[in-house]
Design goal:
It is a single chain. This protein has a single domain, classed as 3-Layer(aba) Sandwich (Rossmann fold). Helices cover about 45% and strands about 15% of the residues. It contains eight helices and seven strands. A seven-stranded parallel β-sheet has the order 3-2-1-4-5-6-7, with helices on both faces. Pfam families: adh_short_C2. GO terms for molecular function: oxidoreductase activity, acting on the CH-OH group of donors, NAD or NADP as acceptor. Keywords: Oxidoreductase. Belongs to the short-chain dehydrogenases/reductases (SDR) family.
Length: about 250
């Protein structure tokens, strides 16, 4: 193995934004380990991404298993240079119908797992004196969206955590930034928007560019924030949203 090759971990890397990101990283000669729950999808992704891509089938809601997962990756590939915290789950439900366990499950996957995975990876980045972490937020943390209370809480927390991490870790050579995707054309969003024409119309009418983004738009932003091109950028929340967050 070429030890000059950088190592990246991308959670939720088998589809959508995570897959687009893994593709961008591997195309730029970065050894990329994708993490996801669905082994069939992971194997498909690896077959498309080539020999610089490996996978680990793991459910990130298994908090206690995360330190072992990171050790396993470090033992095989070396310490990670890049961590992209992309995995997340969503749920659309009226506020009063969200159960305690619904709320807890989303916080566990979208927030607690990001904290624990980042903590374990940072231990290795501190030793190296360098590293880049990119968290993924959402329009739900830029303004209020109904029916996604737990998801919104998790993403607002991700943005706060990004700033706190950046302030504490940047003196040790570790940059931490966040991308806030707007409405991107993926299988997941297509399902949500195509079944709800009013919501789709609302999304497009408040997006100054008048169209949905593509997964590659997010991958390019993540790539910028995870590489030397952004070596003086830390603690930033970058909306990639066609102007949606500032649209009227």
């Amino acid at each position: 193995m070429n030890h000059n090759t950088k190592v990246a971990i991308v959670t939720g890397g088998a589809s959508g934004l995570g897959f687009a990101t893994a593709k961008k990283l591997t195309e730029n000669n970065i050894r990329t380990v994708i993490i996801g729950r669905d082994e069939v999808k992971l194997k498909q992704a690896v077959s498309l991404l080539g020999e610089l891509c490996s996978y680990r089938a793991f459910d990130l809601s298994d908090i206690a298993g995360i330190p072992g997962l990171v050790s396993n990756i470090v033992n095989e590939f070396g310490g990670p240079d890049i961590l992209v915290n992309n995995a997340g789950i969503n749920q659309k439900k009226p506020f009063v119908e969200v159960t305690d366990s619904d709320f807890k499950q989303i916080i566990q996957t979208n927030l607690t797992a990001v904290f624990v995975l980042s903590r374990e990876v940072v231990k290795h980045m501190v030793e190296a004196g360098s590293g880049s972490i990119v968290n993924i937020s959402s329009m739900a943390s830029q303004y209020g969206i109904p029916y996604v209370i737990a998801y919104t809480a998790s993403k607002a927390a991700i943005e706060g955590m990004t700033r706190a991490m950046a302030t504490e870790l940047s003196p040790q050579g570790i940059r931490v930034n966040c991308v806030a995707p707007g409405f991107i054309a993926t299988d997941m969003s297509a399902k949500a928007l195509d079944n709800d024409p009013n919501r789709k119309q609302k999304v497009l009418s408040r997006t100054p560019m008048g169209k949905l983004g593509e997964p590659n738009d997010i991958a390019e932003a993540i790539f910028y924030l995870s590489t030397e091109a952004s070596k003086y950028v830390t603690g930033v929340i970058l909306p990639v949203d066609g102007g949606n967050s500032i649209g009227f």
